[in-house]
Amino acid sequence: MNLYLRYFDKETLVPNVETALDFLYSIPEISMSPELEADIRDYVNSDVLYPKRYKVRQRVYFIIIKTLAASMMDFKQKKALRPILNEKQDLAATAVTRLTENVPGWYEGSLDFKRVVMIPATGKHEYRDTHFVVICKATSGQECYDRIVDYLRGRVDSRSQFPSVKGKNFRFRYLGMWK
Asked: What is the DSSP string of 70-137?
């Protein structure tokens, strides 16, 4: 993993933390302290992939970015970002595949949605967070979601809001084959 450092128009791509520190020591405006050096070493050795910015003075920073780019040209053309994006796409594809995988049986589905209810004292309506859990026969996680939403649409106010099947407010678990 290489490191990209930039301070205004001064930039470099270095292979290790020692070369990065040499670059930072060569810039007179940046006052390097043992604490700053230790923090940079901790950042480089951590699993954190997002860019890190360090304050030089008010509204003036230098940044460090971890990258897989082999050269400055690759970094500028963002060629090294594609493998990271592909890993995220693979994880998303796995979740969608699991959702649509055809496995007939019993499913436990839970759904958190916004239900419209009337307040009797005022006669006005409000949204309330509602948790709904059901065990149903289905052939996939997608069908489990569809059956839950179809059931609820006929029993709650039509203004109620249901989450996306791919969102964090719908979870399902395969319980086993039916007989």
From this structure: SSHHHHHTTGGGHHHHHHHHHHHHHHHHHHH----EEEEEEEEEEEEEE-TTT--EEEEEEEEEEEEE
| Residue 87 belongs to some domain of the structure | no
Q: How far apart are CA 89 and CA 57, in angstroms?
A: 39
Residue 88 burial (CB < 10 Å; 0-12/13-18/19+)?
exposed
Please indicate, yes or no, whether residues 48 and 105 belong to a single structural domain of this protein.
no
- Domain finish residue from 48, 81, 114: 81
CB-count burial class (<10 Å; 0-12, 13-18, 19+) for 56: middle
Q: Are 110 and 131 in contact (CB under 8 A)?
A: yes
pTM value? 0.49
pLDDT tens digit string along 114-164?
A: 999 999 999 999 999 999 999 999 999 999 999 999 999 999 999 999 999
Evaluate whether residue 88 is within a structural domain.
Answer: no
Neighbour-count burial of 92, counting CB atoms closer than 10 A to its CB (0-12 exposed, 13-18 middle, 19+ buried): exposed
DSSP helix/strand/coil, 52: strand
Q: Under a CB-based contact definition with an 8 Å cutoff, are residues 17 and 23 in contact?
A: no
Distance CA 42, CA 167 (A): 34
Do both 171 and 104 map to the same domain?
yes
Element (H, E) at 43: helix 34-45
